[in-house]
Amino acid sequence: MLLPVLAVLICVASMLDAKPLAKKVVNSTNPFGPLTFSSDGTFQISIFEDLHFGENAWDQWGPQQDINSVKVINEILDAESPGLVVLNGDLITGENGFLENSTVYVDQIVGPLVDRGLTWASTYGNHDYDYNISGSTILARERQWYNSRTTQMVFGEDAGVSNYYLPVYDSDCTDESCAPELLLWFFDSKGGFRYQQEDDAGNRVGQPNWVDFTVVDWFLQTHAELVNKYNKLIPSLAFVHIPTFASYVLQEEGVDPNTETGINDDVPLAPQAQGWCADGRNDGSCDYGGQDTPFMQAISEVPGLMAVFSGHDHGNTWCYKWDRQLPNMTVAPQYDVNLCFGQHSGYGGYGNWERGARQILATQSKLENFEVDTWIRLESGNVVGSVSLNGTYGRDRYPKTNHTETYCPTCQY
């Protein structure tokens, strides 16, 4: 029992040393109002991927990593001016957490956002689900803050938690009766392990690692209802932690550093349904079960969906336009959709690729042609991978992204 107690003590000590956060409020409505474009017609999103707070809390270097991850968040937000921050999965390294302290890491993560009066929305990743932590417990902690827009719109054991959408309105919109100018879809790809569940041998019970078919049905139905309600096609973006199998096949086809600019070091990448069999077994006998096929069909047949942003593979930062039938796949995209990775943001988790955060800039005039701009802001302050996800993306040529690394300067592993 020494390690759990020590972990709690370390966590409490780090919280006492940290800068006090703004007042938390429980069971409150969001005072920020609806998301809106700025008066200049722009809306910016900062995506933080794979922060992995709470890793090895019983060692000196675990809490120190978290301190450096907070520093990354502060440096990125000092350089950028987002209207929304997206925490796109693996907020916490759940397998290193304990029931008593696992969700307090949420407070550390959102502290810089609360200090700046920023609002955020989350998806949950495979490391956010383990024996002592779940999407539900993280959501409950998030909802103690006014700033959180994370919610749950689909229910069921296999649906996951972070499935919902957020509309973004014109700056002149005074209430939510206006038609949105942009839709943001958030999906829970789950994975990891089921909360507080063991099998007959006392082992943790694995959880499916794909977007569930009930979520797909909700997405298609809700999208159709919104189109019918507003009598218009609304441009949209999507966020999900684990990438689809389509990204895996596109990577096999070859990532050109000048047309799909970014780092391509995680080869092969790890897609949804990895390690599962088609019959639902996850006993190590299968590489891929294909259960993300309904989700791939959905994102490729919904018009107006410009891009899907994922994390999970820390060494991949490229965007690839999925615009054709791919080998060994049954899904042919009806509409082109860009499949993008973010940047490993936290000092927790594997890899020493320079930490940073992908930025998205939606401009109302460009949304008429279903185009957005995106770039990655690095911890050093440098900007890489600046591209326009437009009709010619995939043919346009951009500067190659240099491979840079950062190390925790005060950690002793």
Structure characterization notes:
This is Metallo-dependent phosphatase. It comes from Hypoxylon rubiginosum. The chain is of the alpha/beta class. It has a single domain (2-389), classed as Metallo-dependent phosphatases (Purple Acid Phosphatase, chain A, domain 2). Helix content is 23%, strand content 20%. It is built from eight helices and 15 strands. The chain has helices at residues 2-17, 61-79, 105-116, 135-142, 213-230, 245-253, 293-301, 364-367; strands at 35-36, 42-48, 84-88, 120-123, 164-169, 182-187, 193-198, 204-206, 236-240, 305-310, 319-322, 337-341, 356-363, 372-378, 383-389. A seven-stranded mixed beta sheet has the order 1-5-6-9-10-12-11, with helices on one face. A six-stranded mixed beta sheet has the order 4-3-2-13-14-15. Strands 7-8 form a two-stranded antiparallel ribbon. Helix 2 links the parallel strand 2 (42-48) and strand 3 (84-88). Helix 2 runs parallel beside helix 3. The radius of gyration is 20 Å and the shape is globular. Mean pLDDT is 92; it is low at 1-29.
In short:
By secondary structure, the protein is of the alpha/beta class. It has 8 helices and 15 strands.
- How would you characterize the largest beta sheet? 7 strands, mixed
Shape estimate: globular
| Number of distinct helices | 8
What is the CATH topology?
A: Purple Acid Phosphatase, chain A, domain 2
Q: Give the overall average pLDDT.
A: 92
Protein name: Metallo-dependent phosphatase
Organism: Hypoxylon rubiginosum
